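lol ok so funny story. i was supposed to be doing the assay writeup but got distracted and ended up predicting the structure for this chain instead. priorities right. anyway since i did it might as well share w the group, maybe its usefull for someone
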Amino acid sequence: MDVSSEFLEVLSQYEEANEFFELLTPGKKRTLIYWVDFVKNYEIKIRRAIVLCQHLKDQNGIADFKKMNMEMKTANAYYKMC
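and the output, tada:
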């Protein structure tokens, strides 16, 4: 599956999250890549990738999709305030 350059760049900056990401099953990787790259706006892709990496670090590599979506809503609200 093709991965955006934005997602790869963010993963390269979060070494611990990258290690957790590589340990995930191919299906979860595919789902997370799709979640990040589904949007066309590159700023939102970067924001989603950052939220994903922080989530993987905080959850010790366990992807909780419901919690991650809530974290994304919080990040979007913060971005709108700035």
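The chain has a mean pLDDT of 94. The CA atoms of residues 21 and 61 lie 7 Å apart.
back to the writeup now i swear
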